[in-house]
Amino acid sequence: MYSVGVILLELFHPFWTEMERNGVLTALSSGIIPEVFETHWPVQSKYVKLLTDAAWSLRPSAAEMLKSELFHDRENVVQDLQQKVLHLEEENERLKRSLELLKGQISSRDAAPQF
C-alpha cells in the first residue's frame, strides 16, 4: 500500500527534475508532503499520508481504499482528473512559451556579429 501512496503522489504532483523527485520521495518516507500538493490536492494528500504511514499496520487496505472518498464519489474522481489535465495543459503552454523565448535568444545571439 505504501507504493500506492507514492504512485498517487506522483500522479498529481509534477517533478521537474529527478533530483527533486528523489528529495520529495525521501521526505515522504518521513511523513513530509510538499505544501503545494497539500494545497492543490487535499483529499489525495490525506490518502498519500495514510498510505505512506511509517506504521504499516495503520495503512488502509485495498478494500478500504476502494470504499474511500477517493473512489466512492465518481464525480470527484472525474473532476480531479479533469483539473489535473487542465493544470498540465497550462504548464505545457508555459513551457512552450519559454522554449520559444529561448529559441529567440539563441537566434539573436547567433545573428549578432562576432568580434
Question: Any overview of this molecule?
Answer:
Helix 1 runs antiparallel to helix 4. It contains seven helices and no strands. It is elongated. The chain folds into two domains: 1-60, no CATH class; 73-115. The model has no long low-confidence stretch (mean pLDDT 86). It has helices at residues 2-12, 18-28, 35-40, 42-51, 62-67, 69-72, 74-111. The longest helix is centred in the C-terminal third of the chain and has 38 residues, at 74-111. With 115 residues, it is mostly helical.
Mean pLDDT, rounded to whole units? 86
Helix/strand/pairing category = mainly alpha
**Helix-strand pattern:** HHHHHHH
Helix content: over 70%
Discrete helix count? 7
Largest sheet report: none
- Say how many strands there are: 0
Quaternary state of the chains:
single chain
Number of domains: 2
* N-to-C CA distance: 62 Å
Determine the strand fraction and express it as a percent band.
under 5%
User: Rg to the nearest angstrom?
Assistant: 20 Å
Ranges where pLDDT stays below 50 over 5 or more residues in a row are none
What is the general shape? elongated
Coiled coil: 71-105
Keywords: ATP-binding, Coiled coil, Kinase, Nucleotide-binding, Serine/threonine-protein kinase, Transferase
GO cellular component, one term: nucleus
Enzyme class: transferase
